[in-house]
Amino acid sequence: MSKKEKLDYWDEDTWRKLKDEFNVSKAKKSEVKLPREKTQKAQTLMYLYKNKNSAVLKATAEAAICGAMDIPTKDIQSLRHLSKQDGFKILQGGELHNGAKLPSGQYVFCGFDDINSFWSSKRRDAEGLDFSSIKDNYGHSCATCGAKEGKEHRYTKKIVVLEKGHMDPSNKMDNSNIIPQCKHCNTVAKNHFVFNCHGRVKKMTIAGILKLYKRGELENIKKEIEDHLKK
Ligand SMILES: [Zn+2]
């Protein structure tokens, strides 16, 4: 399909309405950012916007969004990301909607005058950070692999950008809980590890254990732990 044909699917009227509403909203004031237009994420937000305040099923939403973009139906991650990463107020399975627990696999977009409270507290925690002093202390290098900021990374061959690595993901992000990490190390770590101040892994988080070990390995670990605890 050519680029021009694809743009024909873009619903300009709804997008304009959505943008007008967003521009005077609490979300905008709280520095939530709209996705770029004509992207899958923008398409997802438009779908949610059209179904504001009502529960939408993941599968139904995916069929509609992919249908609008004329691509085969697939897993749409932006349904989750728009809330957790971008700050839009979208209820998900397990959260309360009209006094009842929303079943898993359902989403409710609550409009632009509210935001994801977890996202906003994460942002508040991130304020007051003195990342440039922290980077100075580490010689502007990744604490974990030593890659130098602004230089080519020896594995990825990309220019190194230092990110705020969370030493202990279960604690909030303050100056004592940050190490500079290159994108490569930070992405690999996700919230799977607890690091010391030298960027070395201190231990795995429970989320990391559950995610990184296979079922059989987890069963072995469970048995070893049970035996260990009996001693
Ligand atoms: Zn690194």
List the SSEs and their pairings.
Layout (H helix, E strand, L loop, with lengths): L2 H5 L4 H12 L2 H4 L10 H11 L5 E2 H12 L8 H7 L5 E3 L3 E2 L2 E2 L4 E4 L7 H10 L4 H7 L24 E5 L11 E5 H7 L3 E3 L5 E4 L1 H7 L2 H16 L1
Antiparallel strand pairs: 1-5, 2-5, 3-4, 6-7, 8-9
Helix pairs in contact: 4-5
Zinc ion (ZN) binds next to strand 7 and helix 9.
Describe this structure in words.
A three-stranded antiparallel β-sheet has the order 1-5-2. A two-stranded antiparallel ribbon has the order 3-4. It has helices at residues 3-7, 12-23, 26-29, 40-50, 58-69, 78-84, 117-126, 131-137, 183-189, 206-212, 215-230; strands spanning 56-57, 90-92, 96-97, 100-101, 106-109, 162-166, 178-182, 193-195, 201-204. The radius of gyration is 22 Å and the shape is globular. The protein folds into two domains: 3-121, no CATH class; 128-210, no CATH class. The protein has 231 residues and is an alpha+beta fold. It is 42% helix and 13% strand.
Largest β sheet strand count, sense and barrel closure: 3 strands, antiparallel
The number of distinct β-strands equals 9
Estimate the mean pLDDT confidence. Answer: 90
Q: Please compute the radius of gyration using only Cα atoms.
A: 22 Å
- Estimate nothing, just give the exact number of structural domains: 2
Q: What is the molecular shape?
A: globular
Helical content band: 40-55%
SSE order: HHHHEHHEEEEHHEEHEEHH
Distance between the termini: 66 Å
Which molecules other than protein and nucleic acid are bound?
Answer: zinc ion
Low-pLDDT runs: 1-5
Strand content: 5-15%
What is the strand arrangement across the widest sheet? 1-5-2
Classify the secondary structure makeup into a structural class: alpha+beta
Number of helices: 11
